[in-house]
Fold this protein.
Amino acid sequence: MAESKPYKKPLPRVDEESRGYWEALARHQLYFQRCRDCGTKRFYPRALCPRCLSSSTEWVRASGRGAVYSFTVTHQNQAPGFREELPYVLAIVELDEGVRIMTNVVGCAPDAIRIGMRVEVVFDDVTAEITLPKFRPAA
């Protein structure tokens, strides 16, 4: 849930290409896009398919489960909002559906994170308008 103190980190810019993604996150659902013409799955949201340049797009609900593809543990960051959470894990998670998403892994010690570790989405309501997807070790 959103904290009572103000959120200090930069917030995403919601635009027409990404609005459906952010609206789904506010409902605690994770979506990615798929091209209706060639079937290419994609994340991050964008207007045109990177493979065939089609604008025919559909939103697909993700399972919210995947595996850590890559990660780094950040021990130094003096920017407001980040320094209070040190150390933190920045990761690329490959969803079971095949798309990769940059995120944070939460809910476990940074030294316990491993490539291939199974994770599941959790939703962080950082403001009344913005929810961020983060991942924790799978139950």
